[in-house]
Specification:
binds 3-methylbut-3-enyl trihydrogen diphosphate; 245 residues; binds magnesium ion; 15% strand; Undecaprenyl pyrophosphate synthetase; alpha/beta
């Protein structure tokens, strides 16, 4: 007992298990990715209904390029297709889309659609949906460090002036609070290079469910588990006092 965390403001999800879902059905792995996108669509709707202000989904990591070319191509094509198809809905639902990661290695069609959707939904504030595509936590920190170093070299920034706030301001995720809750499906308990800076005090929730099977009930279970957690941020809990910093 003793959990007193309110609903999470920011939920991040490592959507894992598409391939195993498909293999178990003797389907190609790409069929799992199609179903996985359906599960992502359901989750976005559920998060909207729940009034969760920020949802961040890990769609493609910097390491996922090492997969067979055919799987990578199909996956990136699927992303472009879904974004093109859903962009009117994003707009109608007043969703702000934001993409995390380095777009330079992505196919032109996908990179173009991402830019377009980002621009088109930039003014919305009902929910921010961040999608990590060609994202790696280490790459994120690296590019932030490089840009900070360039500012120091140009004499615009003193090394002593670099604090957590300056680092945060140069990450892909700049301007948004850290995730309160991280959900990882697919029966693996690791971060796989996701949001390394941002997850410092995030509550972690792991489930064996493969991503295409992730249901609204399962989402509710994750939220309930979060609400039962006691967040201490390194402090000692004083009964009756709020725990959030
Ligand atoms: C997650 O499912 C989707 C991506 C990483 C793109 P996987 O494709 O990793 O599925 P498993 O883990 O092999 O089952
Ligand atoms: C993490 O899943 C990346 C995404 C969900 C996009 P992976 O399947 O790539 O992670 P590992 O290889 O099991 O660590
Ligand atoms: Mg996987």
């Amino acid at each position: 007992m003793g959990g007193d965390a309110p609903s999470p403001r920011h939920v991040a999800v490592i959507m894992d298990g598409n391939g195993r879902w498909a293999t178990a059905r003797r389907l190609p792995r790409t069929a799992g990715h199609r179903q996985g996108l359906e599960a992502a669509r359901r989750l976005v709707e559920a998060a909207l209904r729940r009034g969760i202000p920020i949802l961040t989904l890990y769609a493609f990591s910097t390491e996922n390029w090492e997969r067979p070319r055919e799987e990578v191509d199909v996956l990136l094509d699927l992303f472009a297709e879904v974004l093109e198809r859903e962009q009117d809905r994003f707009d109608e639902e007043r969703l702000r889309l934001r993409f995390l990661g380095d777009p330079s290695r992505l196919p032109d069609r996908l990179a173009h659609t991402m830019r377009l959707v980002e621009r088109r939904t930039a003014r919305h504030s009902r929910m921010t949906l961040q999608i990590a595509v060609n994202y790696g936590g280490r790459t994120d920190l690296l590019q932030a460090v490089r840009r900070l170093a360039a500012k120091v070299q140009a004499g615009e920034l003193a090394p002593e002036a670099i604090g957590e706030r300056e680092i945060e301001a140069h990450l892909f995720t700049h301007g948004l609070p850290d995730p309160d809750l991280l959900i990882r499906t697919g029966n693996e308990q690791r971060l796989s290079n996701f949001l390394l800076w941002n997850l410092a005090y995030t509550e972690l929730y792991f489930t064996e469910t493969l991503w295409p099977d992730f249901s609204l009930e399962e989402f509710e279970r994750a939220l309930a588990a979060f609400e039962a957690r006691e967040r201490r941020y390194g402090r000692v809990r004083v009964p009756g006092s709020p725990t959030a910093p």
